[in-house]
């Protein structure tokens, strides 16, 4: 296992509510060697409160937080997105344990930008946001009390990534370049349009089948060049359908 | 590995300074199924602040905290005491990693009372207190910033104990059913016909693109049910193409 390339790993907090938690997240991340944080969909947090919880030793991490408007803006430049959730509803998984995910992340981070995505403290990530993820991690807890503090969840995942990285050699050296999130979304959009055109998707619930396809493609770790092939096929199918009509 | 007997495990906080941290410790411990906390050498913490950080769901843990005067009083009734430290000075070890300690703790807790001892936020445990311990755990961190928040340190150790006691789910048990080779070949045949029909494949060398697709599908470890989805899409595309022609 290669040491995770922590400069390629970012923590993305989607609509966090409490300044104190952001400070605690900065501290936990820096303890485990991760210093990129993006906050999406929320800003103007009490600076004093953040700093108190980060301690002055992680103040640099706070100062470098990127604040962006939307989750799409936050995730667009990443190759591999790991969502986190405590809610194990149908269609939200398959779920990985942190240890298992950490091994993948250590490998994938060698040549790819990895986002660890955490939802708001009260509701967590909705299905809509989980759909943007290549993998979904759920942290095991006692059944009696499953709701983790945000910074505790961040700490466990970052700790596992830190531990997963040891200097042995792994398959990651050979790992090819995964497609960017923006390339994937372009491809999904094109597939969705095509499948709706040919009547494969139910217009009432187009995302049901799309979710299966997304899971499949992301599990596969689709490469940039493969996205191009899939889009080429879709284009040809569209052309063919149109050509035959007229 | 036996499941840790969590009712035999207690968290002992020696001279903690901040009410907020005690609340966060209560929450973390309860998340991992541990609900005994002893606070030694400090009392009269702001109750409101503790509750805010424990959340009301771990308020019962706070209510049951035992406050005692001295560390000796706190530890007297335990059979096995695990200290924690970030400072690796001579004579303070030998040090165990949390994962290693957690396995021991899961076993030992079957028939013994186990204390997890944490020092004050600013100084941690002194040599004098470490001498009372049967084992000393140090949590690995980035060299640049080794000082963990108290509740984060508690969380990591409790999490490792929780994980050490979970029955290992082998990858094979968790893995879903892959498609049979015969299912795959049927799918490839159908895709090839479709792609030839729409003019995507060069009739001179139809296998060039098919090879890329095969690579992708086999790398993905495609499931039986996913083969059915792909074939359903192909069928619909064929029907659509044919329907439009006539």
CATH architecture of the largest domain in chain A: 3-Layer(aba) Sandwich
What is the share of helical residues of chain A?
A: 40-55%
Instruction: Strand order, main sheet of chain A: write it out.
Output: 3-2-1-6-4-7-5
Structural class per helix/strand content of chain A?
Answer: alpha/beta
Main β sheet profile of chain A: 7 strands, parallel
Number of strands of chain A: 7
Assembly level: homodimer
Shape of chain A: elongated
Distance between the termini of chain A: 56 Å
How large a portion of the residues of chain A is in β-strands, by DSSP E? 5-15%
The level 1 CATH classification of the largest domain in chain A is Alpha Beta
Tally of individual domains of chain A: 2
Largest interface: A-B, 53 and 55 residues
> Kindly state the mean pLDDT of chain A as a whole number?
89
Looking at CATH, which topology of the largest domain in chain A would you report? Alpha/beta knot
By CATH, the superfamily of the largest domain in chain A comes out as SPOUT methyltransferase, trefoil knot domain
Task: Provide a descriptive summary of the structure in words.
- The structure is a homodimer of 246-residue chains.
- Chain A is of the alpha/beta class.
- Chain A has two domains: 6-173, Alpha/beta knot, CATH 3.40.1280.10; 181-245, Orthogonal Bundle (Helicase, Ruva Protein, domain 3).
- Chain A contains ten helices and seven strands.
- Chain A has a seven-stranded parallel β-sheet.
- In chain A, strand 1, helix 1 (19-31) and strand 2 (36-40) form a beta-alpha-beta unit.
- The interface between A and B is large, with 53 and 55 residues.
């Amino acid at each position: 296992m290669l040491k995770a390339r922590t400069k390629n790993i970012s923590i993305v907090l989607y609509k966090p509510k409490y300044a104190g938690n952001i400070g605690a997240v900065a501290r936990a991340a820096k303890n485990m060697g991760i210093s990129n944080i993006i906050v999406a969909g929320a800003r103007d947090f009490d600076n004093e409160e953040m700093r108190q919880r980060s301690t002055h030793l992680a103040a640099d991490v706070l100062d470098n937080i990127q604040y962006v408007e939307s989750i799409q803006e936050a995730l667009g430049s990443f190759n591999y997105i790991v969502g986190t959730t405590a809610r194990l509803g149908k269609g939200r998984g398959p779920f990985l344990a942190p240890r298992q995910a950490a091994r993948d992340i250590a490998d994938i981070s060698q040549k790819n930008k990895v986002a660890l995505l955490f939802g708001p403290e009260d509701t967590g990530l909705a299905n809509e946001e989980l759909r943007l993820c290549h993998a979904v991690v759920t942290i095991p807890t006692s059944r009696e009390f499953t709701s983790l503090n945000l910074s505790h969840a961040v700490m466990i995942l970052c700790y596992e990534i830190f531990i997963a990285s040891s200097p042995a050699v792994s398959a990651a050296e050979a790992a090819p370049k995964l497609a960017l999130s923006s390339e994937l979304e372009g491809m999904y959009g094109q597939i969705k349009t095509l499948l709706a055109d040919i009547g494969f998707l139910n217009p009432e619930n187009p995302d049901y089948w799309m979710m299966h396809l997304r899971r499949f493609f992301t599990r596969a770790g689709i490469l940039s060049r493969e996205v191009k092939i899939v889009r080429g096929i879709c284009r040809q199918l569209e052309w063919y359908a149109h050509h035959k009509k007229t």
